[in-house]
């Protein structure tokens, strides 16, 4: 590749800030160090989850084995699934995105560095909390999906499920924060000239994936909160003995669970879309189709959750709808595979270790996709749903797909992260051991499933061929474990004495390869201009630049994005981040509202709102809260007019009105409790106190933010006609008020009109 001559107009970088030592890493706000720590933490959990898998495979190696008892096996089974999904695959992809995305878009850092660090440490805290359950009475043993009523208190009395809930809530909040960070970074901090139609495909898929996280994770968080309230406050959301519905838990969990599959796969698609073109020496074939199909996959993934529930008995209409929707989602996925194959066709392929893993991904993920499509035939699903056929399918998607892609990405970006090359010789040993061990472990499980071997069992009878096939699977698992040791040795040896990488050892085309290896804290000494989808190719070959992409409606019609530190960027970041946060909270409240509507609409013998609620007093509370939105708006207008005293006064009035609302709601709660209307009495109490209680918590948070603004206003910290902080808090407060209007209409007015 030719030497890149950066033009005089390229943007200079700020001075580097020195940081070093262990404390420098722990306290770091640098997105690159945080991304590497993400990878280290998730790989540590990967080792733990792998050991759990080997223990299970040892138990299943022979029939009627007594190596593990049923209780220990159930705990390992639950912890393995939870670890690999929530502590390994999803956060490992977020870690790669945290490192790579700001570099690919030409940003000098991620949008919210402190929130980025918070996301990482919430992952660590959630993982440690989950594993602390072993020391606190026993690990969770209800499966990584924690189906009700098994996960309810009468059936699981230990604290394992409670730690499972709290651990996943911590990691879920961190994941949402990371997704908001990535969305804002991509939308607001792109380099000049990098329109959305010029984004590297890894960044594009991270963007879509982050939006999908904001849609799916609040569903899980709301479900976990309801389950925790059931267990700790004797509520009845999913407890059939109290009128709750165990099926509702399945709907809620899989409404998160199936989008989660694509949350764990879409960034892997992005990695493959970076690796294959570079090592084929061809631009990606059909960029527009690859990008558009990503959006189609994300959209359809939100509408296919109930294909996990065909065995429940949803009825023919529901089965038909979800079967067809599940078939449709295979189309955009197939489009990607065809695009990758077309990119390979006629290319000058270099079979580096990264490319070998990418090629294996194509085969393994296709097998996983084909077996997945077989579940859309409802009669087939009924036969194999509870067998090892499902285990094999899931691992071909998540290990044969995502894990192979992650290894491709690690071999591809390791030189950029460390400045040293991984050994290709050891890398090829790692690849072939992984490829053989993986297929030896899981291919045979398709056959076991078709032969009728059930999953989620700690042992099995001595049925012909079952023992032999399980022994083959166990041998493959140990070979797979050995391949991980080879990878660790390769990393260790390469860090100590690996060949220096240089800035761009692969002759790649995206902006991260324009920085030194490893990049400085500020990322770029000079930020190259972006005139196409392969900016480094354009700089090295000015006579043969990529043709400018067509402007797509709503995507390509904007000008250059603001730079970090620019006034426009500084003003847009809080607003954009708050809008993303409000979107997630809206989905959280929608789930609580759905639970209320579901149970209030059903026939039951418990209390109803009309018997116990005072709509008049609640209406007065509503007036207080709605008026507080108006006073906050007047305060913002006062700031525009540079009237600091009026701003202080309106903020004070807003705080008083919000506090009056909370006092009124507290009095209503006290009246209900005195009348023996509690969260544990019946379904009305369960849903009413949960919904209004979480709204009250949001009001309390809003009052804390308003009090902070009030203090800053008194200290004369707001000098200009606008304030990003006031605008962001105002957006949140108006959202809280809008949610209450919906709650008041649903609970109180419905009670009066009904």
UniProtKB/TrEMBL annotation:
Pathway membership: Energy metabolism; oxidative phosphorylation
Keyword Glycoprotein included in the entry's annotation: no
Catalysed reaction, written as an equation: 4 Fe(II)-[cytochrome c] + O2 + 8 H(+)(in) = 4 Fe(III)-[cytochrome c] + 2 H2O + 4 H(+)(out)
Highest taxon, organism lineage: Bacteria
Gene Ontology biological process: electron transport coupled proton transport; oxidative phosphorylation; respiratory electron transport chain
Lipid bilayer topology: Multi-pass membrane protein
Gene responsible for this protein: ctaD
GO cellular component, one term: plasma membrane
Entries under NCBIfam families matching the protein: CtaD_CoxA
Subcellular location: Cell membrane
Cross-referenced Pfam families: COX1 (PF00115), COX3 (PF00510)
CDD domains recorded: Heme_Cu_Oxidase_III_like, Ubiquinol_Oxidase_I
Organism of provenance: Candidatus Segetimicrobium genomatis
Residues in Heme-copper oxidase subunit III family profile domain copies: 575-752
Identification of the protein by name: Cytochrome c oxidase subunit 1
């Amino acid at each position: 590749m030719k030497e890149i001559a950066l033009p005089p107009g390229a943007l200079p970088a700020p001075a580097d800030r020195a940081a070093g030592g262990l404390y420098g890493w722990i306290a770091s706000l640098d997105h690159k160090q945080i991304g590497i720590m993400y990878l280290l933490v998730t790989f540590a959990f990967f080792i733990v989850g792998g050991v759990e898998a080997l223990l299970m495979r040892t138990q299943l190696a022979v029939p009627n084995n007594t190596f593990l008892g049923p209780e220990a096996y159930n705990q390992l089974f639950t912890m393995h699934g939870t670890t690999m999904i929530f502590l390994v695959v999803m956060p490992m992809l977020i870690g790669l995105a945290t490192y790579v995305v700001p570099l690919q878009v030409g940003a000098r850092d991620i949008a919210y560095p402190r929130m980025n660090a918070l996301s990482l440490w919430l992952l660590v805290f959630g993982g440690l909390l989950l594993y602390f359950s072993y020391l606190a009475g026993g690990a969770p043993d209800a499966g990584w999906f924690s189906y009700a009523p098994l996960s309810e208190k009468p059936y699981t009395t230990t604290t394992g499920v409670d730690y499972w809930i709290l651990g996943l809530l911590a990691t879920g909040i961190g994941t949402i924060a990371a997704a908001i960070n990535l969305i804002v970074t991509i939308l607001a901090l792109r380099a000049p000239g990098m329109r959305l139609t010029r984004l590297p495909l890894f960044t594009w898929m991270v963007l879509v994936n982050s939006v999908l996280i904001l849609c799916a994770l609040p569903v899980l968080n709301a479900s976990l909160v309801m389950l925790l309230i059931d267990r700790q406050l004797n509520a009845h959301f999913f407890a059939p003995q109290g009128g709750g519905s165990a099926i509702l838990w399945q709907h809620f969990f899989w409404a998160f669970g199936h989008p989660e599959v694509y949350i764990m796969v879409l960034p892997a698609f992005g990695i493959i879309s970076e690796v294959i073109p570079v090592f084929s020496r061809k631009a990606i074939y059909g960029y527009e189709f690859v990008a558009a199909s990503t959006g189609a996959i994300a959209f359809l993934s939100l509408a296919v959750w109930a294909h996990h529930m065909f065995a429940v008995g949803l009825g023919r209409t529901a089965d038909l709808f979800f079967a067809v929707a599940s078939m449709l989602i295979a189309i955009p996925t197939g489009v990607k595979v065809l695009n990758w194959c077309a990119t390979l066709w006629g290319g000058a392929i270099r079979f580096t270790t990264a490319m070998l893993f990418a090629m294996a991904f194509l085969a393994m993920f296709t097998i996983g996709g084909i077996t997945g499509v077989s579940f859309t035939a409802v009669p087939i699903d009924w036969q194999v749903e509870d067998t090892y056929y499902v285990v094999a399918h899931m691992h071909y998607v998540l290990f044969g797909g995502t894990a192979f892609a992650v290894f491709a990405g690690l071999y591809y970006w390791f030189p950029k992260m460390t400045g040293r090359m991984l050994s290709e010789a050891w890398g090829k040993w790692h690849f072939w051991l992984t490829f053989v061990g993986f297929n030896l472990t899981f291919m045979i499980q398709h056959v076991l499933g078709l032969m009728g071997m059930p999953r989620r069992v700690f042992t099995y009878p001595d049925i012909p061929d079952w023992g032999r096939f399980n022994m083959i699977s166990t041998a493959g698992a140990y070979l797979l474990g050995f391949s991980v040791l080879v990878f660790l040795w390769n990393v260790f040896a390469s860090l100590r004495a690996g060949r220096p990488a240089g800035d761009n050892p692969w002759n790649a085309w995206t902006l991260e390869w324009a920085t030194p290896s490893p990049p400085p804290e500020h990322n770029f000494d000079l930020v190259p201009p972006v005139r196409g989808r392969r900016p480094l190719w354009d700089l090295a070959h000015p006579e043969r630049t990529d043709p400018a992409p067509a402007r797509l409606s709503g995507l390509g019609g904007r000008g250059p994005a603001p730079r970090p530190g620019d006034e426009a960027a500084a003003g847009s970041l809080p607003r954009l981040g708050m809008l993303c946060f409000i979107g997630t909270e809206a989905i959280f409240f929608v789930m609580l509202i759905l639970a209320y509507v579901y149970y209030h609409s059903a026939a039951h013998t418990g209390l109803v709102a009309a018997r116990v609620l005072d709509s008049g007093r609640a209406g007065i509370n509503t007036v207080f809260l709605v008026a507080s939105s108006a006073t906050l708006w007047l305060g913002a207008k006062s700031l525009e007019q540079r009237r600091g005293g009026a701003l202080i006064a309106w903020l004070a009035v807003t705080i008083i009105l919000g506090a009056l609302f909370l006092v009124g709601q507290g009095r209503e709660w006290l009246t209900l409790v005195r009348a023996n209307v509690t969260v544990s009495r019946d379904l009305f109490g369960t849903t009413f106190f949960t919904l209004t209680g979480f709204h009250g918590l949001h009001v309390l948070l809003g009052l804390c933010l308003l009090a902070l603004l009030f203090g800053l206003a008194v200290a004369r910290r707001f000098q200009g006609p606008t304030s990003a902080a006031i605008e962001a808090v105002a957006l949140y407060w108006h959202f809280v008020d809008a949610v209450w209007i919906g709650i008041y209409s649903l609970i109180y007015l419905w009670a009066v009109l009904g």
